[in-house]
Design goal:
- The protein is built from 10 helices and 5 strands; from the N terminus they run βαβαβαβαβαααααα.
- A 5-stranded parallel sheet has the order 2-1-3-4-5, sandwiched between helices.
- The protein starts with a strand and ends with a helix.
- It is elongated.
- The chain is an alpha/beta fold and 202 residues long.
- Helix 3 links the parallel strand 3 and strand 4.
């Protein structure tokens, strides 16, 4: 399948090989790169497939790779891999045009689904998703305090940071977080961030 090519960029050889093996087993065509510059030097237009890149790498990191891809006119869909707590970087990546992000350590099936979705999208343009309108409507049902906590969460704040900012206890932050997650029907913080960015709320 010509459109099943995944360009994997990760400076960690063990992670690169592990992801490559997983994707090969799942039926993807793969190309592995140690650095973003290797990918940029290799791509020709029109490039096909999608890019899966780690966000934290020496030299050209995932964000800079995204910037350079877009500056060169490449519209390949990009999925970024982030470490735990890299919410701010994930938000920035999506604002730069990444179509999704997945947090390490990730579930194999979640990664495969994210890449299939990216390949089906076939470009950097945002897909009009009716669930986003529904998400915006649900966000409108949040109390002022729940919305404040949501905004802080999407910006990458921890419960302790948010509690300090809003002058409430971390435990109270957790209660508000549980309520807003239920009201927005986001299954995870990753989903909350993704929807917030795509809906223009972050």
């Amino acid at each position: 399948m010509a459109h099943s090519l995944v360009h994997v960029v990760d400076d960690d050889p063990a992670m690169r090989d592990s992801v490559g093996f997983l994707l090969d087993t799942a039926g993807f065509e793969i190309a592995l790169y140690e650095a973003g510059t290797d990918l940029l030097d290799t791509l020709v237009k029109p490039a096909r497939g999608c890019v899966l890149t780690d966000i934290r790498m020496p030299g050209v990191d995932g964000l800079e790779l995204l910037r350079r891809l877009r500056a060169c006119g490449h519209t390949l869909p990009v999925v970024v891999m982030t470490g735990h707590g890299d919410v701010q970087l994930a938000v920035e990546a999506m604002k730069l045009g990444a179509c999704d992000f997945i947090e390490k350590p990730f579930d194999d099936e979640a990664l495969v689904q994210a890449l299939r979705s990216a390949l089906n999208r076939g470009g950097a343009a945002k897909v009009v998703d009716p669930t986003l309108d529904e998400f915006v409507r649900r966000v409108g049902t949040l109390s002022d305090r729940e919305r404040q906590v949501m905004d802080q969460l999407v910006a990458g704040g921890s419960s302790k940071d948010i509690g300090r900012t809003l002058d409430i206890s971390p435990r109270t932050v957790e209660i508000y977080r549980a309520k807003l997650m239920a009201k927005t029907q986001a299954a995870s913080l990753q989903e909350l961030v993704r929807w917030s960015v795509l809906a223009g709320l972050a």
